[in-house]
Amino acid sequence: MARTPLARTYLDWNATAPLRDEARAAMLAALDVVGNPSSPHAEGRRARALVEDARERVARLVGALPQQVVFTSGASEANNTVLAAGWESIVLSPAEHPSVLAPARAHGARIHELVLDGNGALVRDRLAGSTPAESTRAQAEGALESADERVREDAVGRRGLLRGRGLFSLQLANNETGVIYPVAEMACWARARGLAVHCDAVQGAGRVPIDMAALSVDYLALSAHKLGGPKGVGALILARGASLPPFITGGGQEHRRRAGTENVAAIAGFGAAAEASGRELALGAMEGVGALRNRLEEGARAIAPDVVVIAAGAARLPNTSSLALPGTGAETILIALDLVGIAVSAGAACSSGKVATSHVLAAMGLPAEIARAAIRVSLGRATRAADIDAFLDAWSTVAARRPRLVA
Q1: Whole-structure pTM over 0.70, yes or no?
Q2: What's the number of CA atoms in the CB half-sphere (13 Å) around residue 324?
Q3: Which of the four pLDDT bands, split at 50, 70 and 90, describes residue 401?
Q4: Fewest 10 Å CB contacts: which of 212, 242, 359, 372?
Q5: Could you tell me which of 16, 21, 51 has the C-alpha nearest to residue 33?
């Protein structure tokens, strides 16, 4: 007798969102367009029109102008392009995505880290000390210093902080905990110290309103597949007057910033997804998602009162919950949930397959036993109450079977 396929409950939207119908339709239509977008004939102009239409849609999502949008292979390329642009000093959060942290540390800049509290929020009057870029991570040099005029005077005079070309990088929202960061406020702090400002807005786009001018950033990175677009396409939005070396040389595409024939079908899907997600956001779709996230956390606490809802005291994305179940490990929880048809994640998707202690949770100062037990549950537009019920049913089984901590 054939086995009935296991029904799946997808709760890993921060890793990737299912492809939207609008994006699929746009991509299929674009695949039938023959021309090269750089060709002057009718076929080429038709392909170019698809690219430029998508550029306008992506720009509208973040309150930018079309000419500010440069299409890339994804947010990792966009982040790498900015962070590897020859900065002498980089100030950033230790909770940034690896596509920000790795290039920042690999290209000779002097790194200065912000400080996080136990909820993952910035300690706004503190700045950790700095170390040379070859260090695996910036370590604090003695006491933390106030991020006011005393920091400027002491750190600049003694450590060379912010001398020369400097960059400040702060994500809009964290991919693991959902914590939303005060980008506009911190951008003012950075600009007062002569820094350009970069923001990885991948997790926030389509989930919270974004206005690039209001954020006061020079560079904003986006990824299509987090919005329900295709994988392998993203964008870097540059403020007017912001400069960067060409991403790729050898052609005039993307206003001579990124050479190479554009991926027309993927870009068309990105534009359709950006427009649809912006429309849903304006209609309040995230409010319903937030209510489901709250129901999930309340249910998880009722089942296992000792569960730790990480970053519960911080402003968070309405779709993201990071849960730690003391007495077990994230890998054990993931396997148990996957076997009964529940898809969640342990930290960032880029670290999947090698479940290890999260650098984000480590930066928050969480105990190792909590960090090792943390999973990320992320919801989206198609999540329903039945999905939350399925998760809680499986969560109950996992909690009942976990090995107990020895007092």
Answers
A1: yes
A2: 22
A3: confident
A4: 242
A5: 51
**What does DSSP assign to residue 189?**
H
Among the options 31, 49, 214, 350, which is catalytic? 350
Which CATH code fits 42-281? 3.40.640.10
Amino acid at 390: A
d(CA 219, CA 315): 23
Which of 362, 313, 322, 319 has its CA nearest to residue 137? 362
Query: Positive or negative CA dihedral for 309, 311, 315, 321?
Result: negative
DSSP state of 3: P
State how far the Cα of 394 lies from the Cα of 323, in Å rounded to an integer: 14
In this structure, are residues 259 and 249 in contact, taking their beta carbons and an 8 Å threshold?
A: yes
Architecture of the 9-15+284-401 domain: Alpha-Beta Complex (3.90)
For the chain, give every domain's residue range: 9-15+284-401, 42-281
* Amino acid letter, residue 330: A
Task: Report pLDDT for 351.
Answer: 47
b/e sequence 114-131, b meaning 16+ C-beta within 10 Å: bbbeeebbbeeebbbbbb
Q: What is the DSSP letter of 156?
A: H
Known catalytic residue at 350: yes
Distance between CA atoms of residues 51 and 94, nearest Å: 36
